[in-house]
Amino acid sequence: MRLIADLFLLGGAMFIFLGALGLIRMPDVYNRIQAGTKAVTLGAMGIFIGIAFLFPQWWHKLLVIMGFILLTNPVSSSAIARAFYLSGVKPWHKTVSKEKNSKLAFPSEKHQEDIST
User: For the whole model, what pTM was predicted?
Assistant: First the structure.
């Protein structure tokens, strides 16, 4: 049981480390949000499962915490990404293809087009 718990704890720590590395290495805010959210959520689940194997009497409390993390992390990262989008932060130039880039108008550009017409 201890070996399984240690494997989950190690796997969770590795995913959290990779998420932190993704925050440093990714080129723009949208990629950083995605890397951080997905990796840290998975890493937290691994750590909580490892703790549940070490301390079985905490299983129901850890399950509630895991459910809260699974529900709130994607929603909060989506809200943050939307706030960046609405404030006019553009993605990295290699993120969007040229066909999509011509159709993609940010709120600040739409507002400027409305003013000029």
Answer: 0.75
